[in-house]
Design a protein that fits this description.
Elements (H helix, E strand, L loop, with lengths): L1 H4 L5 H20 L4 H16 L4 H19 L3 H5 L6 H20 L8 H6 L7 H9 L3 H4 L5 H9 L12 H24 L8 H4 L3 H33 L6 E2 L2 E2 L9 H6 L3 H7 L2 H15 L9 H14 L3 H26 L6 H25 L2 H10 L3 H16 L16
Antiparallel strand pairs: 1-2
Length: 426
Protein backbone atom coordinates (compact mmCIF):
# COMPACT_ATOMS: atom_id res chain seq x y z
CA UNK A 1 0.00 0.00 0.00
CA UNK A 2 2.79 2.38 0.93
CA UNK A 3 4.77 1.71 -2.23
CA UNK A 4 1.79 2.14 -4.58
CA UNK A 5 1.05 5.56 -3.05
CA UNK A 6 4.18 6.90 -4.77
CA UNK A 7 2.66 6.25 -8.21
CA UNK A 8 -0.88 7.60 -7.77
CA UNK A 9 -0.84 10.31 -10.46
CA UNK A 10 -2.71 13.30 -8.99
CA UNK A 11 -2.90 15.06 -5.62
CA UNK A 12 -6.64 14.41 -5.37
CA UNK A 13 -6.01 10.79 -6.33
CA UNK A 14 -3.44 10.44 -3.54
CA UNK A 15 -5.94 11.81 -1.01
CA UNK A 16 -8.60 9.38 -2.21
CA UNK A 17 -6.13 6.51 -2.20
CA UNK A 18 -5.07 7.33 1.37
CA UNK A 19 -8.68 7.52 2.54
CA UNK A 20 -9.87 4.48 0.59
CA UNK A 21 -7.07 2.13 1.62
CA UNK A 22 -7.20 3.31 5.24
CA UNK A 23 -10.96 2.87 5.41
CA UNK A 24 -10.76 -0.57 3.78
CA UNK A 25 -8.17 -1.65 6.33
CA UNK A 26 -10.41 -0.51 9.17
CA UNK A 27 -13.41 -2.35 7.72
CA UNK A 28 -11.39 -5.53 7.18
CA UNK A 29 -10.49 -5.52 10.87
CA UNK A 30 -13.57 -4.08 12.58
CA UNK A 31 -16.43 -4.34 10.05
CA UNK A 32 -19.49 -2.47 11.39
CA UNK A 33 -17.49 -0.73 14.09
CA UNK A 34 -15.76 1.26 11.34
CA UNK A 35 -18.75 3.62 11.46
CA UNK A 36 -17.72 4.54 15.03
CA UNK A 37 -14.36 5.65 13.62
CA UNK A 38 -15.85 7.67 10.75
CA UNK A 39 -18.60 9.38 12.80
CA UNK A 40 -16.33 11.54 15.01
CA UNK A 41 -14.46 12.69 11.88
CA UNK A 42 -17.71 14.08 10.45
CA UNK A 43 -18.58 15.79 13.75
CA UNK A 44 -15.15 17.46 14.05
CA UNK A 45 -15.22 18.66 10.45
CA UNK A 46 -18.59 20.25 11.14
CA UNK A 47 -17.16 21.92 14.27
CA UNK A 48 -14.29 23.33 12.20
CA UNK A 49 -16.77 24.79 9.70
CA UNK A 50 -19.18 26.32 12.22
CA UNK A 51 -17.03 27.37 15.22
CA UNK A 52 -13.54 28.08 13.93
CA UNK A 53 -12.59 30.41 16.80
CA UNK A 54 -13.15 27.65 19.34
CA UNK A 55 -12.80 24.54 17.18
CA UNK A 56 -9.61 23.41 18.94
CA UNK A 57 -11.13 23.51 22.42
CA UNK A 58 -14.44 22.02 21.27
CA UNK A 59 -12.62 19.18 19.50
CA UNK A 60 -10.56 18.48 22.61
CA UNK A 61 -13.78 18.20 24.64
CA UNK A 62 -15.75 16.18 22.10
CA UNK A 63 -13.00 13.84 20.88
CA UNK A 64 -11.62 13.00 24.31
CA UNK A 65 -15.11 12.50 25.76
CA UNK A 66 -16.01 10.22 22.85
CA UNK A 67 -12.81 8.22 23.26
CA UNK A 68 -13.29 7.77 27.01
CA UNK A 69 -16.89 6.67 26.50
CA UNK A 70 -15.69 4.05 23.99
CA UNK A 71 -13.01 2.90 26.43
CA UNK A 72 -15.67 2.40 29.09
CA UNK A 73 -18.08 0.63 26.73
CA UNK A 74 -15.42 -1.74 25.41
CA UNK A 75 -13.75 -2.47 28.74
CA UNK A 76 -12.53 -6.06 28.52
CA UNK A 77 -9.52 -6.69 30.75
CA UNK A 78 -8.79 -10.23 29.63
CA UNK A 79 -8.97 -9.43 25.91
CA UNK A 80 -6.58 -6.48 26.16
CA UNK A 81 -4.23 -8.31 28.51
CA UNK A 82 -4.07 -11.22 26.04
CA UNK A 83 -3.17 -8.88 23.18
CA UNK A 84 -6.62 -8.53 21.64
CA UNK A 85 -7.65 -5.29 19.96
CA UNK A 86 -10.85 -3.52 18.99
CA UNK A 87 -11.65 -0.29 17.20
CA UNK A 88 -10.65 1.81 20.23
CA UNK A 89 -7.01 1.19 19.24
CA UNK A 90 -7.22 3.13 15.93
CA UNK A 91 -9.67 5.53 17.57
CA UNK A 92 -6.88 6.59 19.95
CA UNK A 93 -4.66 7.62 17.03
CA UNK A 94 -7.61 9.24 15.27
CA UNK A 95 -8.33 11.43 18.31
CA UNK A 96 -4.78 12.80 18.23
CA UNK A 97 -5.12 13.68 14.55
CA UNK A 98 -8.54 15.28 15.01
CA UNK A 99 -7.34 17.45 17.88
CA UNK A 100 -4.16 18.45 16.04
CA UNK A 101 -5.86 19.50 12.81
CA UNK A 102 -8.59 21.43 14.67
CA UNK A 103 -6.09 23.24 16.92
CA UNK A 104 -3.91 24.11 13.93
CA UNK A 105 -6.96 25.46 12.09
CA UNK A 106 -7.79 27.63 15.10
CA UNK A 107 -4.13 28.72 15.28
CA UNK A 108 -4.49 29.96 11.71
CA UNK A 109 -6.54 32.86 13.10
CA UNK A 110 -3.63 34.10 15.20
CA UNK A 111 -2.45 37.40 13.80
CA UNK A 112 0.77 37.84 15.70
CA UNK A 113 3.85 36.08 16.94
CA UNK A 114 4.23 32.33 16.65
CA UNK A 115 7.39 30.27 16.68
CA UNK A 116 8.31 28.87 13.27
CA UNK A 117 7.20 25.26 13.91
CA UNK A 118 3.78 26.40 15.14
CA UNK A 119 3.43 28.82 12.24
CA UNK A 120 4.26 25.99 9.80
CA UNK A 121 1.60 23.73 11.33
CA UNK A 122 -1.10 26.42 11.49
CA UNK A 123 -3.80 26.26 8.82
CA UNK A 124 -5.03 29.46 7.20
CA UNK A 125 -7.86 27.78 5.35
CA UNK A 126 -10.14 24.83 5.97
CA UNK A 127 -8.86 21.57 4.46
CA UNK A 128 -11.15 20.19 1.79
CA UNK A 129 -13.11 17.05 2.76
CA UNK A 130 -10.86 14.87 0.62
CA UNK A 131 -7.72 16.36 2.23
CA UNK A 132 -9.22 16.01 5.70
CA UNK A 133 -10.22 12.36 5.37
CA UNK A 134 -7.09 11.48 3.41
CA UNK A 135 -4.99 12.80 6.29
CA UNK A 136 -6.99 10.97 8.96
CA UNK A 137 -6.86 7.57 7.23
CA UNK A 138 -3.46 8.00 5.57
CA UNK A 139 -1.44 4.83 4.96
CA UNK A 140 -3.19 2.77 7.58
CA UNK A 141 -1.50 4.78 10.34
CA UNK A 142 -4.71 4.53 12.36
CA UNK A 143 -3.92 0.90 13.18
CA UNK A 144 -0.80 1.46 15.28
CA UNK A 145 0.20 5.03 14.51
CA UNK A 146 2.32 6.98 14.26
CA UNK A 147 0.59 10.31 14.76
CA UNK A 148 1.40 12.69 11.92
CA UNK A 149 0.79 16.41 11.40
CA UNK A 150 -1.62 17.63 8.72
CA UNK A 151 0.97 20.09 7.39
CA UNK A 152 3.43 17.24 6.79
CA UNK A 153 0.76 15.11 5.11
CA UNK A 154 -0.29 18.05 2.91
CA UNK A 155 3.27 18.85 1.79
CA UNK A 156 4.07 15.19 1.19
CA UNK A 157 0.96 14.67 -0.92
CA UNK A 158 1.56 17.85 -2.93
CA UNK A 159 5.28 17.17 -3.32
CA UNK A 160 6.22 20.47 -1.69
CA UNK A 161 8.47 21.53 1.19
CA UNK A 162 10.85 18.77 2.23
CA UNK A 163 9.37 16.42 -0.39
CA UNK A 164 10.14 18.79 -3.25
CA UNK A 165 13.70 17.46 -3.20
CA UNK A 166 14.69 14.46 -5.24
CA UNK A 167 14.65 11.61 -2.76
CA UNK A 168 17.08 8.68 -2.80
CA UNK A 169 15.81 5.14 -2.68
CA UNK A 170 14.29 4.08 0.64
CA UNK A 171 14.74 0.36 -0.07
CA UNK A 172 17.65 -0.22 2.33
CA UNK A 173 16.26 1.67 5.36
CA UNK A 174 12.85 0.07 4.73
CA UNK A 175 14.38 -3.39 4.67
CA UNK A 176 16.33 -2.70 7.88
CA UNK A 177 13.16 -1.54 9.65
CA UNK A 178 11.18 -4.51 8.34
CA UNK A 179 13.83 -6.97 9.56
CA UNK A 180 13.87 -5.17 12.92
CA UNK A 181 10.12 -5.66 13.19
CA UNK A 182 10.45 -9.39 12.44
CA UNK A 183 13.22 -9.78 15.02
CA UNK A 184 11.10 -7.92 17.56
CA UNK A 185 8.14 -10.21 16.94
CA UNK A 186 10.38 -13.28 17.26
CA UNK A 187 11.79 -12.07 20.59
CA UNK A 188 8.33 -11.16 21.84
CA UNK A 189 6.89 -14.59 21.02
CA UNK A 190 9.83 -16.42 22.60
CA UNK A 191 10.12 -14.29 25.74
CA UNK A 192 6.39 -13.92 26.39
CA UNK A 193 5.92 -17.68 26.11
CA UNK A 194 8.55 -18.21 28.82
CA UNK A 195 7.58 -15.16 30.90
CA UNK A 196 3.85 -14.44 30.41
CA UNK A 197 2.49 -11.25 31.95
CA UNK A 198 -0.10 -13.05 34.08
CA UNK A 199 2.67 -14.95 35.93
CA UNK A 200 3.55 -11.85 37.98
CA UNK A 201 0.08 -12.09 39.55
CA UNK A 202 0.35 -15.73 40.64
CA UNK A 203 1.15 -17.23 44.06
CA UNK A 204 4.20 -18.91 42.53
CA UNK A 205 5.65 -15.49 41.65
CA UNK A 206 4.80 -14.11 45.10
CA UNK A 207 6.73 -16.94 46.73
CA UNK A 208 9.99 -16.19 44.89
CA UNK A 209 12.87 -14.28 46.56
CA UNK A 210 12.58 -10.52 46.08
CA UNK A 211 15.63 -10.15 43.84
CA UNK A 212 14.45 -12.99 41.61
CA UNK A 213 11.04 -11.34 41.35
CA UNK A 214 12.68 -8.13 40.15
CA UNK A 215 14.63 -10.12 37.54
CA UNK A 216 11.50 -11.94 36.34
CA UNK A 217 9.61 -8.66 36.19
CA UNK A 218 12.36 -7.09 34.07
CA UNK A 219 12.36 -9.90 31.48
CA UNK A 220 8.53 -10.08 31.43
CA UNK A 221 8.04 -6.43 30.61
CA UNK A 222 11.01 -6.28 28.27
CA UNK A 223 9.10 -8.89 26.26
CA UNK A 224 6.05 -6.62 26.26
CA UNK A 225 8.15 -3.77 24.88
CA UNK A 226 9.18 -5.97 21.95
CA UNK A 227 5.50 -6.32 21.02
CA UNK A 228 5.33 -2.55 20.65
CA UNK A 229 8.64 -2.49 18.79
CA UNK A 230 7.18 -4.91 16.24
CA UNK A 231 4.01 -2.93 15.58
CA UNK A 232 5.72 0.45 15.44
CA UNK A 233 8.71 -0.53 13.29
CA UNK A 234 6.58 -2.26 10.67
CA UNK A 235 4.46 0.90 10.47
CA UNK A 236 7.65 2.95 10.08
CA UNK A 237 8.75 0.63 7.26
CA UNK A 238 5.49 1.32 5.43
CA UNK A 239 5.96 5.09 5.71
CA UNK A 240 9.57 4.80 4.56
CA UNK A 241 8.46 2.87 1.50
CA UNK A 242 5.89 5.52 0.67
CA UNK A 243 8.54 8.25 0.98
CA UNK A 244 6.77 10.08 3.83
CA UNK A 245 9.54 9.39 6.35
CA UNK A 246 12.14 11.28 4.30
CA UNK A 247 13.69 14.00 6.47
CA UNK A 248 16.37 15.58 4.29
CA UNK A 249 20.07 14.83 4.26
CA UNK A 250 22.93 15.37 6.70
CA UNK A 251 26.47 15.31 5.29
CA UNK A 252 25.08 13.76 2.12
CA UNK A 253 23.35 10.92 3.97
CA UNK A 254 19.56 10.70 3.68
CA UNK A 255 17.57 10.65 6.91
CA UNK A 256 14.40 8.57 7.09
CA UNK A 257 13.24 9.43 10.59
CA UNK A 258 10.43 11.96 10.11
CA UNK A 259 7.90 9.36 11.28
CA UNK A 260 10.24 7.56 13.70
CA UNK A 261 8.20 6.03 16.50
CA UNK A 262 10.81 4.38 18.69
CA UNK A 263 14.57 4.22 19.10
CA UNK A 264 14.98 0.82 20.68
CA UNK A 265 18.57 0.99 21.87
CA UNK A 266 18.04 4.42 23.41
CA UNK A 267 14.97 3.15 25.27
CA UNK A 268 16.74 0.11 26.68
CA UNK A 269 19.87 2.04 27.71
CA UNK A 270 18.48 5.44 28.72
CA UNK A 271 19.88 6.79 31.95
CA UNK A 272 16.85 8.96 32.67
CA UNK A 273 13.10 8.92 32.24
CA UNK A 274 13.38 12.10 30.17
CA UNK A 275 15.47 10.26 27.58
CA UNK A 276 13.06 7.33 27.67
CA UNK A 277 10.15 9.67 26.96
CA UNK A 278 12.02 11.22 24.02
CA UNK A 279 12.65 7.83 22.40
CA UNK A 280 9.48 5.84 23.17
CA UNK A 281 6.30 6.37 21.10
CA UNK A 282 8.02 9.47 19.73
CA UNK A 283 5.20 10.89 17.62
CA UNK A 284 2.61 10.61 20.40
CA UNK A 285 5.17 12.32 22.61
CA UNK A 286 5.40 15.09 20.00
CA UNK A 287 1.64 15.52 20.13
CA UNK A 288 1.62 15.74 23.93
CA UNK A 289 4.48 18.24 23.90
CA UNK A 290 3.01 20.47 21.17
CA UNK A 291 -0.67 20.40 22.12
CA UNK A 292 -0.57 19.94 25.90
CA UNK A 293 2.76 20.64 27.62
CA UNK A 294 3.95 23.70 25.66
CA UNK A 295 0.50 25.30 25.80
CA UNK A 296 0.48 25.05 29.59
CA UNK A 297 3.87 26.79 29.99
CA UNK A 298 3.70 30.62 29.84
CA UNK A 299 6.32 32.23 27.63
CA UNK A 300 9.47 33.17 29.50
CA UNK A 301 8.45 31.16 32.57
CA UNK A 302 9.87 28.01 34.11
CA UNK A 303 7.63 25.01 33.38
CA UNK A 304 7.53 23.69 36.95
CA UNK A 305 5.75 20.45 37.75
CA UNK A 306 2.13 21.23 36.81
CA UNK A 307 2.56 20.98 33.00
CA UNK A 308 4.54 17.75 33.45
CA UNK A 309 1.91 16.01 35.59
CA UNK A 310 -1.02 17.42 33.59
CA UNK A 311 0.51 16.09 30.36
CA UNK A 312 1.02 12.62 31.83
CA UNK A 313 -2.54 12.54 33.18
CA UNK A 314 -3.83 13.41 29.69
CA UNK A 315 -1.72 10.52 28.37
CA UNK A 316 -3.22 8.17 30.99
CA UNK A 317 -6.78 9.23 30.08
CA UNK A 318 -5.97 8.73 26.39
CA UNK A 319 -5.00 5.13 27.13
CA UNK A 320 -8.11 4.41 29.21
CA UNK A 321 -9.48 4.45 32.73
CA UNK A 322 -7.59 1.54 34.29
CA UNK A 323 -5.98 2.66 37.58
CA UNK A 324 -2.76 0.97 36.41
CA UNK A 325 -2.45 3.55 33.63
CA UNK A 326 -2.53 6.40 36.13
CA UNK A 327 -0.05 4.59 38.37
CA UNK A 328 2.27 4.22 35.38
CA UNK A 329 2.09 7.75 33.99
CA UNK A 330 2.17 9.53 37.33
CA UNK A 331 5.15 7.33 38.22
CA UNK A 332 6.79 8.36 34.93
CA UNK A 333 6.16 12.00 35.87
CA UNK A 334 7.98 11.49 39.16
CA UNK A 335 10.85 9.79 37.33
CA UNK A 336 11.10 12.68 34.85
CA UNK A 337 11.11 15.17 37.71
CA UNK A 338 13.93 13.23 39.38
CA UNK A 339 15.85 12.87 36.10
CA UNK A 340 15.93 16.63 35.58
CA UNK A 341 18.01 16.84 38.74
CA UNK A 342 20.13 13.73 38.21
CA UNK A 343 20.99 14.91 34.69
CA UNK A 344 22.46 18.09 36.17
CA UNK A 345 24.55 15.99 38.54
CA UNK A 346 25.74 13.93 35.57
CA UNK A 347 26.84 17.14 33.88
CA UNK A 348 28.57 18.31 37.06
CA UNK A 349 30.47 15.02 37.40
CA UNK A 350 31.07 14.48 33.67
CA UNK A 351 34.85 14.68 33.94
CA UNK A 352 35.24 12.88 37.25
CA UNK A 353 35.77 9.22 38.12
CA UNK A 354 32.13 9.11 39.23
CA UNK A 355 30.72 9.79 35.76
CA UNK A 356 30.59 6.21 34.45
CA UNK A 357 29.44 4.53 37.70
CA UNK A 358 26.68 7.14 38.05
CA UNK A 359 25.49 6.51 34.50
CA UNK A 360 25.44 2.73 35.07
CA UNK A 361 23.45 3.09 38.28
CA UNK A 362 20.95 5.51 36.73
CA UNK A 363 20.50 3.32 33.62
CA UNK A 364 19.85 0.24 35.76
CA UNK A 365 17.47 2.13 38.05
CA UNK A 366 15.60 3.64 35.10
CA UNK A 367 14.92 0.40 33.23
CA UNK A 368 14.01 -1.52 36.39
CA UNK A 369 11.60 1.18 37.51
CA UNK A 370 9.96 1.20 34.09
CA UNK A 371 9.42 -2.55 34.41
CA UNK A 372 8.07 -2.10 37.94
CA UNK A 373 5.53 0.54 36.88
CA UNK A 374 4.58 -1.51 33.81
CA UNK A 375 3.15 -4.23 36.06
CA UNK A 376 0.03 -2.20 36.78
CA UNK A 377 -0.15 -0.95 33.18
CA UNK A 378 -0.04 -4.43 31.63
CA UNK A 379 -2.04 -6.43 34.17
CA UNK A 380 -4.98 -3.99 33.98
CA UNK A 381 -6.29 -5.56 37.18
CA UNK A 382 -5.95 -3.39 40.27
CA UNK A 383 -6.18 -6.26 42.77
CA UNK A 384 -3.63 -8.37 40.92
CA UNK A 385 -1.26 -5.42 40.53
CA UNK A 386 -1.57 -4.52 44.22
CA UNK A 387 -0.71 -8.10 45.19
CA UNK A 388 2.30 -8.03 42.88
CA UNK A 389 3.52 -4.73 44.33
CA UNK A 390 2.87 -5.96 47.87
CA UNK A 391 5.01 -9.04 47.21
CA UNK A 392 7.82 -6.58 46.40
CA UNK A 393 7.00 -4.58 49.56
CA UNK A 394 6.11 -1.61 47.31
CA UNK A 395 9.86 -1.11 47.04
CA UNK A 396 9.60 0.69 43.71
CA UNK A 397 7.15 3.21 45.13
CA UNK A 398 9.44 3.79 48.11
CA UNK A 399 12.36 4.39 45.72
CA UNK A 400 10.30 6.90 43.78
CA UNK A 401 9.47 8.70 47.00
CA UNK A 402 13.13 8.71 48.00
CA UNK A 403 14.17 10.04 44.59
CA UNK A 404 11.52 12.76 44.76
CA UNK A 405 12.75 13.84 48.18
CA UNK A 406 16.30 13.97 46.83
CA UNK A 407 15.22 16.08 43.85
CA UNK A 408 13.18 18.41 46.06
CA UNK A 409 15.40 18.79 49.12
CA UNK A 410 18.88 18.53 47.60
CA UNK A 411 18.16 19.52 44.01
CA UNK A 412 20.69 20.15 41.23
CA UNK A 413 24.24 21.38 41.86
CA UNK A 414 24.49 25.01 42.85
CA UNK A 415 24.08 27.35 39.90
CA UNK A 416 22.38 24.75 37.65
CA UNK A 417 18.62 24.94 37.09
CA UNK A 418 16.54 21.77 36.77
CA UNK A 419 13.79 23.66 34.93
CA UNK A 420 15.05 25.98 32.17
CA UNK A 421 12.67 28.76 31.23
CA UNK A 422 10.55 28.56 28.11
CA UNK A 423 12.01 31.07 25.63
CA UNK A 424 10.01 34.17 24.77
CA UNK A 425 8.88 34.77 21.23
CA UNK A 426 11.14 37.10 19.27
Amino acid sequence: IGYVHRYVPTVAGKHLYAFGTGLAMQYACFEGDTLKIVAPCVVVYAIMIVWRRRCGLLTWIFAFSFLISRHVQNLDVEKWRDGGVDYTGPLMVLVLKLIAVAVCYEDGLVDGKMREPQAYRSLKKLPSPVEFFGYLFFMGTLMTGPFTEFADYRDFTQGSGMWKEKRPSSAVPTLKRFLTSLASMFLYLKLSAAFPVYYVATPDFFAQPVLLKWAIMYVTFTAVRFKYYFAWTISEASLMLSGFSYNGTVDGIAKWDRAATVKMLSVETSSSASLFALNWNIQTGNFLRRYVYERLVPEGKKPGTFPLYATQIVSALWHGLFPGYFNFFIGISVMVQISRVTYKWQQKLANSVWSFPLRVVLTFWNIMMLSYLAMGFCLMDTNAAMKGYASLHFSGHWMLLGGLLFATLIGPPRGMEAYPSRPKLA
